[in-house]
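Researcher: Please translate sequence to structure tokens.
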Amino acid sequence: MVQKTVLKVDVSCDKCKKKILKAVSGLPGVEKIEIDGVKGTLSVTGNADPYEVIVRSRKAGKFAEVVSIGPPPAPTKS
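Model: Translation complete:
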């Protein structure tokens, strides 16, 4: 089941963003990763296990707080 996991993480510098991106992108089932440096959020969409996303984020040296886990928003029809 495709779901979207949103975590609050400290991604204040480019090195931090690259480190967490590398850690999470290796997970099986990850389809899309979005990092918002302004809001300090990491969004992972796909079949990846949310628990594993959190564990990988924390192993990358970043505190990860769960914001939401659930289905991704439906695409808008144009």
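Researcher: Any highlights?
Model: The beta strands are 3-8, 30-36, 41-46, 65-70.
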